[in-house]
Every structure is written in structure tokens, then in C-alpha cells.
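=== RUN LOG ===
request id: a7f3
mode: sequence -> structure
chains: 1
length: 157
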Amino acid sequence: MEDIAPGTLIAGRYRVERLLGTGSVKRVYLARDVLTRRDVAVGVLRVSPEGDPTLGPRFSREARAASALGSPFVVRVLDVGKLGDGTRYMVTEAVLGRSLDAAIRRGAAPPEAAARWVAQVLAALAEAHRKGVLHRDVKPENVLLDPVPGDPVGEVA
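=== RESULT ===
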């Protein structure tokens, strides 16, 4: 799949603003939901014809499983679907903060912040495990720190 140009409408609803990042199986775009007028993140599965045929169904299964989680420390899944050409997508709330990996590269975090982030990640994983969801890629790059004014450390994992 090629990059999606800014201004493109995905699923008739999500207007692409810019690319946020590219992973091994999907590209994530910042988009504007034209119905709710809020920013969202749209993950679009990158599948090549010679790729793994189980990837698409697994992507959809994982999106449905994640949508069952309600922890304040889990990015909420808002929509999931398939475009006319068969491309699968998942829409989540937009978290525009930095990754834990980026925070670590800047040096040691204050102990209070590090302790809160660890507790928040563990709370999210505990809920996922209670609901039978296994996150197979827990690492600092996949933990987002959302700036929250008024939070004691300023960011929530």
C-alpha cells in the first residue's frame, strides 16, 4: 500500500491530515473524523499480495479484542473495517504525545513519573489479561505518554 495523501477520505469519514508512523504491518495516520469533528488515528494494514494471508484476519481479530478494553490506560478503538479494495483499517483515539522510548532517550525520568507509568502499563495489561487479550509486542516504543494538564507528572501512559 502506498502512502495516503493528506485530504484523502478513508471509509467516507476520516480525512487524512498526515502520516504519524509506519510499523512492520501498518501505517498510522492522523485524521479528522468529519462526523464527530475530532482527531483520530487511522491504522491501515500494509499487505502485499505475496504476504502472509493470515495477517488481515488477525489484524481484524486484534482490533475487535482491543475494542473490548475499557482501561483509561488503553487507547480506545473507535472503528474497524475494510475498504472497497479489501484494505483493512482500525480507528483509535489520537494520542499525540511521545513514546516511552523517546522519553527514555532523553534521560532518566523522575522516579514519581516512572513509577506511575509502570503502574499504568501494568493496569492496562492486567485488564487485557482478565479479558483474554494478550499483547504480543509490549515495548517502550509501543507505550504512548499522553500529555494531561493537571496530572501530577504531566503525562499518562
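=== NOTES ===
The helical segments are 55-67, 100-105, 111-130.
Residues 3 and 36 are 24 Å apart (CA to CA).
=== END ===
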